[in-house]
Structure formats: structure tokens, C-alpha cells
Amino acid sequence: MNVNEPMLPPVRGLVDREGRLVQADQRLMDLNIRAGGGIGQPIAIPQIANLARLAQRLGILVSRGVVAADGDDDVELWVRAEPEKAGVRLMITGWRSRAAWYPEAAQGEREGDFLRSAGDWSWETDSALRITFLSISAGAKHGFDSASMLGQPLTRLFALGEDQEGSFPILGGLAMHQRFDGQNATIRATGRTVRLSATPRTDAAGVFAGFIGAAHMIEDAPLVTPQPEASPEDLTDAFAARLDQALRSPLGRIIANADSINAQSEGPLRQDYADYAADIASAGRHLMGLVDDLVDLQAIERPDFVVAQEPVDMADVARRAAGLLGVRASEAQVRIDKPAPQDMLSATGEFRRALQVLVNLIGNAVRYSPREGMVWIRTERENGIAAVIVADQGKGIALEDQARIFEKFERVDPREPGGSGLGLYIARKLARAMGGDVTVDSAPGQGARFVFTLPYRD
Description:
This protein is α+β, with helices and mostly antiparallel strands.
């Protein structure tokens, strides 16, 4: 097959959770058969199989160009792998055949090859700085298990440090999507000092898709005491502040431009390109949410953090939070049953922080509710306590996981699409700072019931 066919309709398929190709359009089915596979068998095209596994492990959409063997030729494919309940949904475009040997590598890939050759070991991330590749296979030498790091934030592996000018080179590289060098870091598991460098890579549409990087071991640096495993993601105040400054503005531009492309405001556009723009905007919003969470985390963990003590109508706050999430609930086909307009429940706290807690709790309830499901919001008063209950019809939370979900960067199932793992930690810290609490009552298959309390105010 030596014909370029980039304008043909997208080719679709489905890989189940065990990695078997269970549905496929004819072109994908034929390619898979030529690779030695078949329907109902593990997908035989390694590049697509790897992307499907990565998407399922991270719980996010992964969109990337790959080159697969097809007889005596290679075929270039743009593969979009999106996890869902049944497995990973595939959409393949840009089907293009070429000679098996390709003399010119992309500039970013060439620079990545130079970095790999110069470093002691190499790493790669996606655009959200989640680790997608580590070149080392054994953890004994470096003090960590490389397999367990895949899909984790880069900051779970490294504690990043300032350079001599008080800057973080990685932030400049991330904000400008350019190469960075000389990022000081320590391996959290051992305290060994390393220096990181990386070059950006882009997808077929020229959009930033992550970093190809190298780690240079600093042999003569003194070992420091390893950081405790219980809190491996603690970031310094300086890092969080610079992260906010470096990312908020460019992320805002990326989201606005991607939304504009998706809306086709400048004229008609191929639908798959418009869909890619929607994916970019969604990823940008996810990153913006992470930045917001990190800024909040920095604030609430300062020793001088205080909240206002003012009159708060918990029923009114609950109605406002439900209103803010109305569009998201509608898109998810979930109905929110909020307190009646005449309901009131006086409490003492800070209005802005109480709203933040309830937006998090109701947002989680919407996210984990089934389609056509419902989220109930009720208010109660008992023995000097004002409470808002948020209940959903999701799959529930096992007893052994109910304490863990309130810890930093923890989620019940990291493979599921979701937030940063900071929301519930921040919500409980805010509630307790106001003299209240956030608790959960749940069981598998019975949904979840989160209770946000504040002191009652006469």
C-alpha cells in the first residue's frame, strides 16, 4: 500500500480493558490482521497498543502521531485514544504510507536524541507533566520503582530547586514551550542531586505535547536526607508562586484560542481539527485547575493562614454552588436537586471559602454520577452545627479508601478521568479552618454522601 490518503474519513475502533481489539473499521482491522492479530485478540500493532494502555492507565485522552510497520512500508497514523468504561476508544486519522526508512527526524526528536545520549538516564512527559517514559528499568540503583512512576506528576519523582538566580528553568520551558537546561532537582526517594534538561515535542498539529528530557547525576554532591514518602509532593512557596505567574497567562491564551478554533469562528474547519482544539481547551482547563489548586494549597498550609468569621447562609451558598455547576451537570446529563429558594441555614464562616468547598463537593458528585443520575443537596441543623449534605448515585467509596481521599494527591482510582487529587484535601482544610469539617459516608454501589459542617449561628 503506497498511496497517501490523508483526507479519508477517520477510522475507529475499540480496545477493551484487557487490551483486545473488539471493534474496528475495515482499514484498522486489515492493518491489525497484517500485523498478526484479529478481532477479540490482543491488538497486534505495538504503537497503538502502547497508546491504548497509556490512555487507560492515565485516565485521560491521549492523542499522538505514530509510525507502524505495514508490510515492506511504514504507515503514519494520528491516533486519538480516549478511555471509557468499556475500554479505550480509538479514532485514527492522517493515514499515510511511506518508505520504511525515514532519513530526516523532526527537530525536537533530534534534540531529544542528543539529550538522551548526554544524560545518565532519560525521561518523557505529556503536556500535563505526567511521566510517560523512564529509560531505567530497575529501581535499586536510583531508589525508586520506575514502573510505578508512569502516569505520575514529574514532581512525584523530583523535588525541584531554584538555580543561582532564584529561578526554575522548567517553568520558563513550560510557559514558552521551549528547551530548558540546568534545572536543579533531587530524587525524592534518595535525596540524590540531579540536573534536568529537556526539549519540547509537538504533535502533528504543532501543539505542545510534553518534554523529552535527560537527568544528569551530580556525583560529587553530598547526599541529603531522603524526603518522607508520606508527603512526596510538597512544593515550596516560591515554586508554587512562580508556577502561578508562569502558567496562568499562557494557559488562558491557549484555552481562549483553542475554544475559538473549536467554535470555527474564523470559518469552516475539518471536524477532526475542531475536535483536537476542544481536547486542547479541555487539557488547558485541567492544567488551570491544577494551578488554582496549587495556589490554594500554598495558602492554606502557611502558618499564618486565617479565614473570616462572618454570617453565612449555607442554603444560599449551596444554591449558588449548584448554579455554578449547572452547565457541567447538563453536559453530563445529571440533575442537581438543590435547596428550595425559601430554605435558610445560618452559620459562621467565610462566604468565599464555603462556596469553594461546596463547588468542589458538588462538582465531584456530578463527575462521578451516572448519566440520567441525580445529585441531592440538603441542609440540616443539629446541636449547634449547620450542615450541607451532598449525595450522589455514583459507584461509592470503599471504607478503606474513605480516609485516603482526603490526603494530598490521592484519588480512589487514578485511572479514571478526574482532578488533581487536591480538591478534597483543600476542602477539608478550609472547613476545619472555619471551625467545621468535611466527612464522607459511603459504600461500594451505594453512592457517596459528603457532609460539610460549620458552627450554627443564631
